Amino acid sequence: MRASLGGRCKGIAAVNVKELCLGALTLGDASGYDLKRFFETTFNQFCAAGYGSIYPALAELAAEGLVRCAGNAQGGRPERKLYHLTAAGRSAFVSSLRQSVPTHRVKSDFLLVLFFGHLLAPEHLAAFLDRRIADLETQIQCLQAGRHGGQAPTASTRLVCGYGLAVQSAAHAYLVQHRDEIIATALASPPAAHHWNAAGQSDARHA
Amino acid sequence: MRASLGGRCKGIAAVNVKELCLGALTLGDASGYDLKRFFETTFNQFCAAGYGSIYPALAELAAEGLVRCAGNAQGGRPERKLYHLTAAGRSAFVSSLRQSVPTHRVKSDFLLVLFFGHLLAPEHLAAFLDRRIADLETQIQCLQAGRHGGQAPTASTRLVCGYGLAVQSAAHAYLVQHRDEIIATALASPPAAHHWNAAGQSDARHA
DNA sequence: TCGCTCATGTAACGCGTTACATGATTCG
DNA sequence: CGAATCATGTAACGCGTTACATGAGCGA
Q1: Distance of CA B63 to CAs A137, B27, B175, Å?
Q2: Which of its termini does chain A have fewer beta carbons within 10 Å around, N or C?
Q3: Which residues of chain B neighbour A114 with C-beta distances below 8 Å?
Q4: Is it the case that residue A100 has pLDDT exceeding 80?
Q5: Distance between alpha carbon B128 and the CA centroid of its chain, in Å?
Q6: Which of B182, B13, B203 is nearest to A42 (CA)?
Q7: pTM for the whole thing?
Q8: What is the mean pLDDT for each group of 10 consecutive residues in chain B (207 residues)?
Q9: Which residues are registered as beta bridge partners of B104?
Q10: DSSP characters over B74-93
Q11: What is the torsion angle, in degrees rounded to the nearest 10, for the CA atoms of residue A30, residue A149, residue A153 and residue A159?
């Protein structure tokens, strides 16, 4: 009767879409469509999920008895499935929360391009930087709206948005401050061969 | 004779391990083992790759003529394959750099747990926060070492480490400043049902 | 000799993304 | 009437992670 999410027997459970759905359902009943919307607004800074993963996840959760599908409470459209978290589902989620390790991983093509900026034409690099700066500004605005916007933000929302705001603002400030320097350096810098043998001797002595 | 990386015909090319390897090889010849080490020191803040993806990637690149394997230049151990970037490989990498969109995606179990902190015991949440804070301090030290450490850092390395330093420091400061408040709030806050219907009406009007 | 670092690879698995397929309703 | 939104799902694919398999040198 193990209610562990995901039937894997190897490795440590990273948070997956199923847990994400369970978590969101602790906030109230919702449909798959609702969940997608929720993920791409409130959670968009640290996770992503498409229909292709949400709907199968909900079906599996229902099969495991962690959520229950209360048909359709709508008048107009017929095909709307409202999912409700069961007691088992709630405790499974809390248990997985407790067991999860605080992973925080970044996959950034932007930083990669920045690192290899000297291989690009300077105007291309400049456009690249400006695009990223503009994107950051958009995200910052969204986070500010989320933190004290119309939707009566909860303490959790304010907290997470505040974190994102701090981080994105720092990134933005750094890029704006160093923009011209970055472009100038990329122009001047030689390819600079790497010393593979001694690489990483002094740092990265962590877990 | 298309030298596009990855034979996919759908979707936009996100930077994958093959491109990562090509990029690293612009810095000089290296083996798969060297590349792994390099990725987990200099690039560890924004990408990750294990042997299970690096070795097949190198083999494919060699088959495509983008890298050449110059056997073993070592005296002692026999089995060391040094890879060398070909002209075709270099131009393929530059071309893919030019085409790539500045993706920047974060997958954070930490923020998820933070959001659902009220479901955990306060001491558990505190331990969680402290752990993350300690991790950030370790990373900050690594980045500082990378920026002006022994290994004669290039301009690119200083740049990228500086960016990481700015971001991680901001995260660290935010968590330290709000630590007690977070725990207190988690204790006090009610589950606070979410209004699914109106969620995300005001924000997230971006590309 | 025990264990660590160096060194290369393979196979299975998990899991998310993308594209495809479908259809009602609402609004201009 | 056509486009956008609401709404649910399936199938294939890509691709990285994990675990497994192997072996030589070197220092304690």
Answers
A1: 43, 21, 48
A2: N
A3: 156, 159-160, 163
A4: yes
A5: 22
A6: B203
A7: 0.89
A8: 45 80 95 95 92 96 94 64 96 94 92 95 95 95 83 85 97 98 87 66 39
A9: A108
A10: -SS-S---EEEE-HHHHHHH
A11: 120
Cα torsion angle, A176, B95, A115, B7, sign: positive
**Rounded to the nearest 5 degrees, what angle is found at the Cα of A60, between the Cα atoms of A59 and A62?**
65
B197: tokens are 């219907």
Q: Which DSSP category does B106 fall into?
A: E
Q: How many residues does chain B have?
A: 207
Question: Angle CA(A70)–CA(A41)–CA(B17) in degrees, nearest 5?
Answer: 105
Under 8 Å CB-to-CB from A139, ≥6 apart: which residues?
A45, A164, A168, B206
Residues 69-128 of A with CB under 8 A from B: 93-94, 97-98, 100-120, 124, 128
Question: Can you name the residues that pair with B108 across neighbouring β-strands?
Answer: A104
Q: Are B167 and A7 within 8 A, CB to CB?
A: no
Amino acid identity of residue B175, one-letter, is: L
**Dihedral angle computed from the Cα positions of residues A5, A9, A12 and A18, in that order, rounded to the nearest 10 degrees:** -20
Residue B82 has a pLDDT of: 94
> B164 burial class (0-12, 13-18, 19+ CB within 10 angstroms)?
buried
Phi/psi for B106 (5° steps) reads -115, 135
Burial class (CB in 10 A: 0-12, 13-18, 19+), A202: middle
* CA dist., res. A190 & res. A198, Å (int): 20
A185 touches chain B (CB under 8 A): yes
Given a cut of 60, whether residue A1 has pLDDT beyond it is no
Cβ count within 10 A of residue B23:
23
CA–CA separation, A195 vs A198, rounded Å?
A: 6
pLDDT at A72 over 90: no
Looking up tokens 């959760």, which residue turns up? A61
Q: How far is the C-alpha of A173 from the C-alpha of B170, rounded, in Å? A: 11
Residue type, A177: Q
The residue count of chain A comes to: 207
Q: Which nucleotides of D are covered by protein (CB under 7 A)?
A: 6-20, 23-26
For chain B, list the strands marked E by DSSP: 67-70, 82-85, 104-108
Q: Is A16 on the interface with B (CB under 8 A)?
A: no
β-partners of residue B107 are A105
Q: State the smallest CA–CA distance between residue B63 and chain A in angstroms.
A: 24
Q: What is the pLDDT of residue A76?
A: 53
